[in-house]
Amino acid sequence: MKYDLLPHPPYSPGLAPSDFHLFPKFKTFLGGQKFATNDEVIAAVEEYFAGLERNHFMKGITALERRWNKCVEVHGDYVEK
């Protein structure tokens, strides 16, 4: 895929793809639901991931590049959406 490894601040949730791209929508999807069994949770998670666009994770990587560049521009300060 020809990606370069870039330096990363030790604690930078604004640059963790799971924090800004995956979990916010996932939490919204699960919000308000109650599960009686582990199997129900597993089914809900599988439903969520099955419903993602084919390029969902590539969009996250693209967004990471933009956010990383913004973080460099502000000298490592927290990067908002």
TrEMBL record:
InterPro entries linked: RNaseH_sf (IPR036397), Transposase-MT_Hybrid (IPR052709)
Source organism of this protein record: Parnassius mnemosyne (clouded apollo)
Gene3D superfamilies associated with the record: Ribonuclease H-like superfamily/Ribonuclease H
GO molecular function, one term: nucleic acid binding
Domain of life: Eukaryota
Protein name according to UniProt: Histone-lysine N-methyltransferase SETMAR
